[in-house]
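User: I'm designing a mutation panel for Acyl-CoA dehydrogenase and want to avoid disrupting the core. Could you give me a predicted structure to guide residue selection? Please restate the sequence first so the numbering is unambiguous.

Assistant: Good idea. Sequence first, for numbering, then the predicted structure tokens:
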Amino acid sequence: MTFVPLDSDFYGFSQRLAPHEQDALTRVRSFLAENVADRVDALWEAAEFPHDLIAPLMATGVGTWAWEETRAAENSAVFRGFLTLELSRVDASIATFLGVTEGLAMGSIGVCGSAEQRAEWLPKLASGEIIGAFGLTEPLSGSDSARGLTTTATREGDTWVLNGAKRWIGNATFSDITIIWAKDTADGQVKGFIVPTSTPGYSATKIERKTSLRIVQNADITLTDVRIPHALKLENANTFADTAKVLRLTRAGVAWSSVGVAVGAYEAALAYAQDRVQFGKPIAGHQLIQDLLARCLANITASIALCVRVSEMHDEDAQRDEHSALAKSFCTARMRETVGWAREILGGNGIVLDFGVARFFADAEALYSYEGTREMNTLIVGRSITGTAAFV
């Protein structure tokens, strides 16, 4: 199959990808069109996850590209960003599922694990043999996770005992392992642990009645005297600064995902405008509609440009926390504008699932908040540009 850039990639950034990367994007795009696109509205309405799609989705290679233990060929962070965009323009929940197991769980092990931990766990996660989750956020600790974690880890010889609670943990109702971040009772530092979900004392309960990312199976987790061997402590996760290294990578991924959500809403609104007739002609021929479509496209184009550069900086080993924080805060804000304009183009039809925009409109709210709110990310940027921290 020949690679065709998306029309919404108005400046053709994806044409700069290597041929094998373009081929991989084409395969994933085809899989999503054939197996996912027609199902997601029903799944979203029912708040159900398509477990039958995990194996064929992972067989496309989407989970293998980031780490040397799993990838078949060299690839760029820009390619991995466009991969996230392709997933998100079809469904943000499927992209979030992958972002959790391949981004946060694999990322924690890839960044903070020992060579032995990487070799044992990364291939299993990349193939979909096991599913991962990431437990940082707590019922009373979100933006202040650096200082406010109450989940504890106590070492007893060669065993760690974990106690506490986590909230909003994606994939956690069916994950095989969850990366749990907890404060060491000995030194007060945040440490990371690979916790098999079958361990006694670990339980996960699905969060119901969500109005965003309904396909994602978020859970409340409780940890009651969960005992794991020292071998499952991430060797290089010893302070929150190590946690932040993982978040730096995944925040850039959320920026890319938000572009995909904006693209999905824009594409649906454009198709609708070309078909919907009012005042004797398709509404795409009316000035106000063209203005809204142009604004959507401008947001998407600016966001792709920013994401491409921050991903290039990752490949150059020049990406810092403030770079990914700026990308996350800017792109999610532009996404929120874009899905709003797309809904506006559809009028009343923009609030029902049948016309392709309502789901993106609702899902955008979750991306806007998770992995650091817009405000928290702007404070990370502000600290960098002023030299003064404004965190309370």
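For picking mutation sites, this is relevant: The first strand starts at residue 132 and ends at 135. The chain has a mean pLDDT of 94.
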